[in-house]
Design brief:
alpha/beta, 24 strands
């Protein structure tokens, strides 16, 4: 109110003061605030009516307040009220009353009053003079300040403009200097580019000449090799005796030591790293330079006695191991003694001195007992990987491991029958339990649910758990694992038929599962796969072989696992084309690389049409899928250009389908055509001419194949490493002679049931196939036992029998 009255005219202020309007307002406001009537409006009307009747002469601020409600002291004075309404403003003008004719009348409130005419005279007060002087003084100051500010801004503007010009001038000067340097650099660059162009053309010419020379030499070598092959095959066909002749392509007559003479020590060591212990020992005896290379420390930080246990005359004994361990113990990190059954305390004592050992494999060591293991782990305290499978350790060994092996992360106790639940309790209570990530308890049938509960309570950091061949494994065991071991991402439970959907639902709730392997479980259903597909979005590897209750709904459930790489549904006979279609339309189609549909007898041509959507599929197996036709099914597989390995055993494939398969996909490396009875020499010839990079080929029980097919195979596929000819009864010694003359990289050969082959074939193999490691000759009546025993000296793994041909071979 005070702020609003300051700007009003003095006449208005005088009117308010003369009619006591502020006093009326004060009395009404006080009455309302103190009495608090139920009807404020009616209260105001009654009081105004009272004023109108009685007049305003006796007006007081508390006249509307009852006597018992009046305060003893007056808080607001008249001076305060005048201040509120700004009635004491000095700007009000003094009035001088001049008596005139008195007019009688009646006011609003009914009182009689006499009219008085007043005249105004202005009398400036000293305060008004001071105010006027201050205003004038302030105007002068504002005018001077404004003029000074304009002058200052003008000078500042000129200064900024000058600075801007100077900056532009400095920038222009810098640009001129840079332009001069740039021109100099351009000239130099043009000169250097010219020199480089001349050098490039010279080097390019030299390169093309060199490439031409290399290509010409290689072409000459290939032409010479092909000529020698043709001559070799022609001599074989003419029946000439080539038994005593040197097999072509073996050696170039140069006996110079290129390894130690031309290669550096690093490359030589890299070459020697592919040799085993026995070969390194033999190389050390060749010459001094080879001895230096063979004794390089990096070659002896990894020892694998399992590879040479059958090559040594007396096997791996304490004398051999102690001698080698004493020489390489300072830098030995990885050691494998798998299957070395002749080791005793002397070896384990020497082993305990290898303080830097981190990886130790004592699997199938029959001489290992609790005392020997205690001696080893006491000395080797930084072991990270420990394999004790197929040994006779007891609970005492597990107690020793928990006490001394504080850093072990990998532990295999597979098929160790003598430890019990107490051993797992020791293991879970040890210091290594919080670091253990991998545990293999396959075949440990003595473990009960209590043992698994103890294990899960301590080993909560487990990530990989292997429980294969565990027929007594039930839901109670796995539920205890799933409740505490929530970080498991890889689980293998092959051969556990008692597990139900409840186990896999609990495992799926952990959401970390990436690899799952199940086999031979007839209780698991689509409900488990739905839970896994919903929760385990990181799933990469799924192996569900021989789970008969699974249907197409399982494939539909896992179709949205966008990171799925391997899917094995072998022997799941209820899968149809619909399930494969759901898998192909899901988000896993872009990532899937391996698919196994072996013995899925309801899968047909429509599934092959949908399989084409797996653009990154590398491995495919559709063995014994009888509803896949040759034209509508097999030919479509040729459109999978990323496919490298294919297994169509037992399918309806003949020469036409095999030819089409090789025509559209010549990148195949591994092909299995077992029991494709309609394939003949012509079909195999067309296929091998198109797929010359075949490395592994299975032609078992293709009974129409003859020596002509093997001739074309040997001529076209020179890098063949594995060949299966079991059940090919028309194969003769000539085929083996073809293979031994050309396929020098062959290391696996199966000629079981080839009844025409004789001892002469083994002679060809010894001369031509120097890298042969696995040879199977079952039911070969033409091969004598003496020849087979002689062949064992050259082939590490040889299987031989001269028994009668089994009925399932189908020989008449």
């Amino acid at each position: 109110m005070a702020a609003s009255m300051k700007g009003q005219k003095p006449e208005l202020k005088h009117y308010l003061r003369s009619n006591k309007l502020p006093d009326i307002y004060e009395a009404l406001l006080t009455g309302l605030a103190v009495m608090c009537p139920d009807d404020p409006l009616q209260f105001i009307l009654d009081k105004l009516r009272n004023l109108k009747e009685n007049g305003i002469d006796e007006l007081n601020w508390d006249m509307f307040v009852e006597e018992y409600m009046k305060p003893p002291n007056k808080v607001i004075t008249e001076s305060n009220l005048d201040f509120i309404f700004n009635l004491d403003d000095e700007s009000m003008i003094d009035f001088i009353d001049i008596p005139v004719n008195i007019q009688r009348g009646q006011g609003y409130f009914g009182g009689r009053f006499e009219g008085i005419t007043k005249s105004r005279k202005i009398w400036p007060t000293p305060e008004m003079y001071a105010t006027a002087y201050g205003h004038y003084n302030m105007s002068l100051k504002n005018m001077c300040f404004s003029a000074w500010m304009q002058y200052y801004l003008h000078k500042k503007k000129k200064k900024l403009a000058m600075e801007k010009k100077m900056n532009r001038a400095a920038l222009h000067h810098a640009h001129r200097i840079l332009r001069v340097h740039l021109n100099v650099w351009r000239d130099w660059l043009r000169y250097r580019k010219g020199c480089q162009a001349m050098a490039y053309h010279k080097l390019k010419r030299i390169y093309f000449v060199s490439v031409g020379i290399v290509l010409f030499r290689e072409w000459r070598a290939v032409a010479k090799r092909n000529k020698d092959q043709r001559e070799y095959f022609e001599r074989l066909e003419r029946g000439e005796n080539v038994d005593d002749e040197e097999t072509f392509g073996q050696g170039d007559g140069d006996a110079q030591d290129k390894l130690s003479g031309q290669l550096g020590i690093e490359l030589a060591v890299k070459v020697f790293s592919f040799l085993d212990i026995a070969d390194l020992a033999r190389c050390a005896c060749v010459c001094r330079s080879w001895k230096v290379i063979a004794y390089h420390s990096s070659l002896w930080n990894r020892l694998d006695f399992s590879k040479v246990r059958n090559r040594l005359a007396y096997g791996v004994t304490d004398l051999v191991t102690t001698k080698l361990l004493s020489k390489c113990r300072p830098y030995l990190i990885h050691l494998s003694m798998r299957g070395c059954s002749q080791l005793h305390s002397a070896t384990f004592t020497a082993l305990s001195e290898c303080r830097n050992l981190q990886d130790l494999n004592l699997s199938e060591c029959k001489g290992l007992d609790d005392e020997s293991l205690k001696l080893v782990v006491k000395g080797c305290k930084i072991i990270l990987y420990l394999n004790l499978s197929h040994t006779h350790i007891t609970d005492a060994s597990l107690r020793t491991i928990s006490k001394y092996c504080h850093n072990v992360q990998f532990l295999s106790l597979a098929y160790c029958k003598k430890f019990s639940d107490r051993g797992l309790q020791y293991l879970s209570a040890g210091k290594c339990s919080k670091k253990l990530e991998y545990l293999d308890l396959s075949g440990c049938l003595q473990i009960t649910p209590d043992g698994f509960k103890s294990l899960s309570a301590g080993c909560t950091m487990l990530q990989i758990l292997v429980l294969n061949e565990f027929p007594t494994l039930n839901d109670d065991c796995m539920i205890a694992i799933a409740a505490k071991c929530t970080k498991i991402h890889t689980l293998s439970i092959l051969g556990s038929p008692l597990l139900t959907d409840e186990t896999f639902k609990r495992l799926a709730n952990n959401r970390h599962l990436r690899k799952l392997r199940i086999e031979g479980n007839q209780r698991i259903s689509d409900l488990s796969l739905k839970a896994i597909g919903k929760n385990c979005t990181e799933l990469e590897h799924l192996y569900l072989a021989d789970c008969q209750r699974l249907t197409d709904a399982s494939l539909k459930a896992i179709a949205n696992c966008s990171k799925l790489v391997v899917c094995n549904m072998a022997d799941v006979v209820q899968i149809t084309n619909t399930g494969v279609q759901s898998l192909a339309e899901g988000s896993c189609a872009a990532s899937l690389r391996e698919l196994n549909l072996t013995n899925c007898i309801r899968v047909g041509d429509m599934a092959m049409f949908n399989i084409r959507k797996f653009k990154n599929l590398v491995y495919l197996s559709v063995c014994f899928c009888e509803h896949i036709s040759e034209k509508s099914g097999i030919e479509l597989l040729g459109q999978l250009h990323a496919l490298v390995s294919l297994d169509i055993s037992g399918c309806n494939c003949s020469d036409e389908g095999l030819s089409s398969l090789g025509k559209y996909n010549n990148h195949l490396r591994d092909v299995t055509l077992s029991e494709c009875a309609d394939i003949t020499d012509l079909g195999l010839q067309k296929f091998t001419q198109q797929c010359k990079d075949i490395e592994r080929l299975d032609l078992s029980h293709c009974k129409l194949l003859t020596d002509g097919a093997i001739k074309n195979l040997a001529f076209c596929c020179r890098y063949l490493t594995s060949l299966n000819l079991a059940g090919c009864k028309l194969i003769t010694n000539l085929s083996i002679q073809y293979l031994s003359g050309v396929c020098h990289h062959l290391h696996t050969l199966d000629i079981s049931g080839c009844i025409i082959i004789t001892d002469k074939a083994l002679k060809y193999l010894r001369k031509g196939c120097k890298k042969l490691k696995y040879l199977t000759m079952l039911y070969c009546k033409g091969v004598t036992k003496h020849a087979a025993m002689k062949m064992m000296r050259h082939v590490p793994a040889l299987k031989y029998s001269d028994d009668e041909i089994p009925i399932y071979y189908g020989y008449k």
